[in-house]
Design brief:
heterodimer; A: Rossmann fold; eight-stranded mixed sheet; 11 helices; 13% strand; B: alpha/beta; five-stranded parallel sheet; 28% helix
Chain lengths: 300, 590
């Protein structure tokens, strides 16, 4: 049983419009339980624009500001500044965006906020494509995956953009990955992000049953497999320097993760072998970073 | 009051900015659902494998919560001989334990013994039903008789136990040696049963030529015959009646009564069952050299594997594939040697074991002072009630609840056909107590049989019979036995099984001290934490935490969960992430 989970306030309601088995509302529910009601959400175009419901309703019990696709970072900075002028520095500002709004369209405004180190929490729930518009590829789509714009005859070529490294390169005070498969870890990281002054960034893997071509009940299992196969390591980075791995993978071959999803159905054995080699390489690099001493001075 | 849809009657009702005025709870997403999840406890594989239908998951959970005496009481609901079974049971539950497919089975037998060490007799008295005014005679005080007596007393009937020997216990006292079951433990267990108001009349042998005939048993409304099988099969060899030849049962009985027979220095034990192993280990403790001769190989021996292993560790010399052909004697008629012939294994017989065949010309002679024959036991036909139907080997023929062919006569344990183990005898005693209770009430058994059963293994639950209700019972009406594949093992960590501590061989052989040590509190807690609780909800909250629709809600500690089907979209995540298969998913009805 998760400590305190039963006592923490439920800030997301039933009746929202997410598909069966969607990782998005799981991530949102956990994040808001961790943050509490003194929070304002800024949501650019993404699945959650739809999930929260149409005017005059909202599935969240905290304010949401819906903004344009490219503006989550800038809008959140603005909300922060306005709250600070009102003397409401205690109110947390949560920018909540999908991978399209983070990796692609909103990257410049996120980078701007992080460079200014505005005191916001930015959470990207990553389902690895533009899902609510019909599964178009994004720069978060993994190598060789099927999407409607990268059909199986011409699957995506090239690695998924490493957003955590991009954010760590800003020397942002706190950057972490999390997954809906590890709720306690996710909530701890969101709390930590809220307690840290400056821009904090949490990258949450959030399976999409229709887009990944999996059964709705498999969401959590697939997310767990992503970590256990080292496709999606769970770790955190302080000040862009100090790396710590938080979940020990069970060392499952990536084939098990890929074969469980329809979006990888077309992969040949050579593809899988190549993906495995890359994952092993990336994992070694991550391990090396986790073993390095961090810079002992202050970045600011 | 759940959120309703908001309607604007005219333009003036609209807010001047686009802002939300209510939640989405008006939107009953339950209408999207094709599959309906529900919490549904199922039968753990251990309980299914236990002939007595013990609530194993339940007592281990109580140990895990530091509630040791309650764990013992939980066991006592289904098995009055907890301290005994915790030592001598061959624990088929552990063979069934799903954890075996993960790392190693839970050490259930050791935990059962541990719970028995925290017995609190005062808790027992509260469990008895009001007196029925009926009287039942129980013939024999072995595990079947003791169990029936305990439950009959609990069901409110007056019980008198007749025992031919000087003290109660039957095979537990006069068969199983003290190094496996200390007498103080057995005495404690019997005292529990006496505390329920059971009367013991020892030294009274029933039957023709006994102290009391069945016709003289007046004033009893029913009789339960559980006299065991105490006649040894004869070897059928020349020299069998020589001085120095005795049966295994006779030897064990003598030693249990405190006699130390003259045996010489070299003893041959014939047989491969538990009596042979017990006799061999007792003989070592009496200071003789022991050869154990069995006509098939070690793999076919009917004795429990652990007993064979320990016998050999202690110094019993096992000679497989050797059958006796004659016993040689001297002029005074005393044993001098045993003649044996080597065997080889052929095709399997009716029992599935490979049939041994003698190898011509392979005879050998081994000088010995004593021969102990332990090749099987039979019921004493003279001790049975007149008129009861028996099978070919003289066992009492009974139906599935232990009813014999004569009105008001019930039977169970080793005197009836079937596996001859302590736990099977306990199961028979429990079944018979139910059958007697139904008979005395003039009730039909069909409904009771449905209420009582535990899984598919034939075990029955006394607590379910007493409740006369399926609601809120252990596994509801589920017959579904949980398999390993149904568990979500992502939530379990590998943890080694407790290694049983035993006396060194030197200290064992100096007397009849108990060989196996029990668990400490800490060891028991660690071992209890290994239980998967297959099929039984432990309120781990996975269903609640992972629900994307906030449709699973806890009802408070110990009360489980409710699912709000107005909103549940039927994604199935709760069922998939249940570690122990205590949820089910089924298609919605059209």
């Amino acid at each position: 049983m998760m400590t305190r989970f039963r006592e923490e306030e439920e800030l997301m309601t039933s009746g929202h419009l997410a598909c069966q088995g969607c990782g998005g509302p799981i991530a949102m529910r956990l994040a808001l339980k961790a943050l509490g009601e003194d929070t304002i959400c800024v949501i650019p175009a993404c699945c959650w624009t739809i999930i929260s419901g149409p005017f005059p309703y909202s599935a969240l019990k905290v304010p949401i500001m819906h903004t344009a696709f490219e503006t989550a970072g800038a809008a959140a900075s603005g909300v922060r500044a306005a709250l600070d002028i009102q003397g409401r520095s205690h109110t947390k500002v949560l920018a909540w965006a999908g991978d399209g709004g983070t990796f692609d369209i909103g990257l410049q405004s996120l980078s701007g906020a992080a460079e200014r180190n505005d005191d916001i929490i930015y959470i990207c729930y990553d389902n690895e494509a533009y899902m609510n518009t019909g599964v178009q590829r994004s720069s978060a789509t993994p190598d060789r995956a099927w999407t409607t714009t990268t059909p199986s005859g011409h699957p995506k070529r090239g690695p998924k953009k490493n957003i955590v490294e991009i954010m760590a390169a800003h020397k942002t005070p706190y950057v972490a990955t999390a997954s809906v498969a590890y709720p306690e870890d996710l909530m701890r990281k969101v709390r930590r992000a809220a307690e840290t002054r400056g821009t904090t960034f949490v990258h949450v893997l959030s399976p999409c049953p229709p887009g990944w071509r999996i059964d709705s009940e498999a969401s959590i299992r697939i997310a767990r497999l992503a970590t256990d196969s080292k496709v999606f390591p769970i770790y955190e980075v302080e000040n862009g320097e100090k790396y710590q791995i938080n979940v020990k993978p069970r060392d499952i071959p990536v084939a098990e993760y890929l074969k469980a999803q329809g979006r990888f159905n077309h992969l040949a054995a050579e593809d899988i072998a190549e993906i495995q080699r890359k994952i092993d390489h990336e994992w070694r690099r991550l391990m090396q970073k986790a073993m390095m001493d961090s810079y002992s001075g202050s970045h600011y | 009051m759940k959120q309703q849809r908001i309607t604007f009657q005219n333009v003036d009702d609209l807010p001047n900015v686009v802002v939300s005025l209510g939640t989405m709870e008006w939107n009953h997403t339950g209408s999207w659902r094709y599959l309906r999840p529900r919490h549904e406890n199922k039968v753990p594989a251990c309980s299914n494998a236990c002939p007595a239908g013990n609530d194993i998951e339940g007592f281990i959970r109580l140990i895990g919560e530091n509630r040791f005496a309650e764990a013992w009481l939980k066991l006592k609901e289904e098995n009055p001989l907890t301290r005994t079974c915790g030592r001598v049971c061959f624990h088929p539950c552990e063979a069934g334990c799903n954890r075996a497919h993960f790392d190693m089975p839970v050490s259930i037998n050791a935990l059962e013994r541990f719970a028995g060490e925290h017995a609190d007799r005062n808790l027992l008295a509260k469990t008895a039903r009001p007196a029925s005014g009926k009287q039942v005679a129980v013939i024999g005080s072995g595990p079947a008789g003791l169990t029936a007596a305990f439950y009959l007393a609990r069901l409110g009937h007056g019980v008198t136990v007749f025992e031919a020997m000087a003290e109660p216990g039957g095979v537990l006292r006069y068969g199983i040696p003290a190094h496996r079951l200390p007498r103080a433990v057995l005495d404690d267990e019997i005292a529990d049963i006496a505390s329920m108001g059971v009367t013991f009349r020892c030294g009274v042998r029933l039957g023709s030529g006994g102290d009391l005939s069945y016709a003289e048993l007046v004033g009893y409304d029913a009789v339960f015959v559980a006299i065991g099988a105490h006649e040894s099969r004869r070897l059928g060899l020349p020299g069998e009646d020589a001085k120095g030849v005795m049966s295994g049962l006779h030897l064990l009985r003598l030693v249990a009564a405190g006699t130390r027979p003259r045996l010489g220095t070299r003893v041959a034990v014939i047989g491969g069952g538990n009596t042979a192993c017990d006799a061999a280990r007792v003989l070592l403790r009496l200071g003789t050299r022991v050869g154990l001769y069995y006509r098939r190989s070690r793999a076919e021996m009917p004795a429990f594997k652990d007993e064979i292993d320990e016998a050999i560790r202690e110094g019993v010399e096992l000679h497989e594939l050797c059958a006796p052909v004659a016993i040689s004697t001297n002029a005074t008629g005393a044993v001098t040697a045993i003649r044996l012939i080597r065997m080889k294994l052929g095709e399997p017989d009716d029992s599935g074991r490979r049939q041994p065949h003698p190898i011509p010309g392979s005879e050998l002679e081994v000088p010995v002072d004593t021969v102990v024959a332990a090749i099987g036991e039979l019921a004493d036909p003279g001790a049975l009630p007149p008129g009861v139907e028996v099978t070919g080997d003289g066992s009492v023929r009974v139906d599935d609840l232990g009813r014999a062919s004569v009105e008001a006569v019930f039977s169970g344990g080793d005197v009836t056909p079937g596996p001859r183990t302590v736990v099977d005898a306990i199961a028979a005693g429990k079944r018979a107590a139910v059958a007697v209770d139904l008979y005395l009430a003039g009730a039909e058994k069909a409904e009771a049989a449905k209420v009582m059963r535990v899984g598919l293994g034939g075990g029955i639950s006394m607590s379910q019979y007493l409740e006369r209700s399926l609601a809120h019972e252990r596994y509801g009406d589920s017959e579904h036995v949980v398999t390993f594949d149904e568990l979500n093992t992502a939530y379990f960590e590998s943890q080694p099984r407790h290694r049983l501590k035993r006396l060194t061989v030197e200290s064992r052989l100096s007397g009849f001290a108990e060989v196996n040590a029990g668990l400490t509190d800490r060891e028991a807690l660690v071992e209890a934490a290994r239980c998967f609780h297959c099929g039984v909800c432990t309120e781990c909250d996975n269903c609640y935490v992972f629900c994307p629709d906030v449709a699973v809600r806890p009802l408070g500690e110990g009360k489980g969960y409710e699912i709000d089907y107005d909103y549940c979209k039927g994604c199935g995540i709760c069922v998939a992430e249940c570690p122990r298969a205590s949820m089910s998913l089924a298609g919605e009805e059209a």
